[in-house]
Amino acid sequence: MLLGASLVGVLLFSKLVLKLPWTQVGFSLLFLYLGSGGWRFIRVFIKTIRRDIFGGLVLLKVKAKVRQCLRERRTVPILFASTVRRHPDKTALIFEGTDTHWTFRQLDEYSSSVANFLQARGLASGDVAAIFMENRNEFVGLWLGMAKLGVEAALINTNLRRDALLHCLTTSRARALVFGSEMASAICEIHASLDPSLTLFCSGSWEPNAVPTSTEHLDPLLKDAPKHLPSCPDKGFTDKLFYIYTSGTTGLPKAAIVVHSRYYRMAALVYYGFRMRPNDIVYDCLPLYHSAGNIVGIGQCLLHGMTVVIRKKFSASRFWDDCIKYKCTIVQYIGELCRYLLNQPPREAENQHQVRMALGNGLRQSIWTNFSSRFHIPQVAEFYGATEYCGCWSPTSPSLPKSWPSQVGACGFNSRILSFVYPIRLVRVNEDTMELIRGPDGVCIPCQPGLPLGSQLLGRLRQENRLNPGGGGCSEPRLHHFFFPALPGTYKLQKTELRKEGFDPAIVKDPLFYLDAQKGRYVPLDQEAYSRIQAGEEKL
């Protein structure tokens, strides 16, 4: 502000008082600007202009497509239908567990049979049905079929049991529950407490004695159901698609609403921001009940026609073998998954794959370089976001041309030139209490480059960009703020004292135990075992 006022003053004095020609006035202003520190802005401009233009074009492209979908009331099933028309016989999903391949036509028919069957059973647009099963092709077909009918799917975390599981089913007000046969024991534990009106369906291997007495076997019922496209429900781009639940580490699980527009924007920003290609093959070993696996991964299949390989659970020992077998070009990761891969002994398979991109979040800076160099992955596509919001996604440097220098550990960028275009800011917080740190004027204090990251990501929402709850917008006028915790690892808020103590037996006074893989049982964790774990000689 002071520099701008000074430049205006020099301009007026030079032209009106000294009556200098415009050329001399221009040079005077330039020298004053550079001498007052303006050279820093010039340097920033030269270094970031290409990156900012690329990021801006991605945002404009996605925003234009979002507006078109809003105007035409498109939904995820409608967008998927256009994908099916483009290449019906291309492989859409591959389930590694049984080597089952589904084409886009087969996925479309399966999901339509789900919609027609549920409609015959009395479910209608606006109802809720829960899905509680491990990863496989049917998981995608189930929630997609529900969406075709306008039924909202509640995607239940498969790690939940008893009270937490019952809480999710009760609060979702689901009229039907589809569970995998592998989850039958968990359902039996809470069956007596379930609403008697809740209809139960089991998908997978059928053992009548292992499921509640009222359960029906879904698979043969779907085979007999009509496979034609059901009538289109009265749903728009901002209506609810499904619910994703938290893990319940800080209390009972909470539902995050995902609307159709939210699903599209998450998948599209990643697709265009990291320059994915329609012929890419994605290796998705992340849980499909969460946004990373189901939106960032599966979304590339449904919306952009990419083939996605689904694995039931992550396996460090089989990871690269799967990538070779299915010719994967993109792999997904989250949290410590990359560290688990690095802890594996070197193998020939890790040098024989065709993977060109690792996509995800939570890759620690300390292993970033080792991960990309050892496994020969040219591009690490790290991003940062949250299931509930999408306002703070930004493409990272590796998404730019290969000549552009990437920053190890970066999870995004904010323009230094046109910061108002994408109004986000990292502000300082107290690392112990996570309270915002404010200056004497009550305003939050921005983080400076190079400082340790004890911060929150703050974004500004405008009324003209509002969307329904879960869509990343607001319904109140003026400006609103939302916050994302910027913590290392899995981005889960942790209790401060426990985080500081870790599992060091020299600090923790309570008895500690760990699962000894060789002995197959829990054994006491002493200082010697702790040292072996820290050195990577023993794995948890």
UniProtKB/TrEMBL annotation:
PROSITE patterns per record: AMP_BINDING, LIPOCALIN
Provide a GO biological process annotation.
long-chain fatty acid import into cell
Supply the alphabetized keyword list.
Ligase, Lipid metabolism, Lipid transport, Nucleotide-binding, Transport
Pfam family for this entry, one: AMP-binding
This entry's Gene Ontology molecular function terms read:
long-chain fatty acid transmembrane transporter activity; nucleotide binding; oleoyl-CoA ligase activity
AMP-dependent synthetase/ligase domain: residues covered: 81-412
What family is it from? Belongs to the ATP-dependent AMP-binding enzyme family.
Question: What name has this protein been given in UniProt?
Answer: Long-chain-fatty-acid--CoA ligase
Q: Which organism is it from?
A: Rhinopithecus bieti
Show the taxonomic lineage: Eukaryota, Metazoa, Chordata, Craniata, Vertebrata
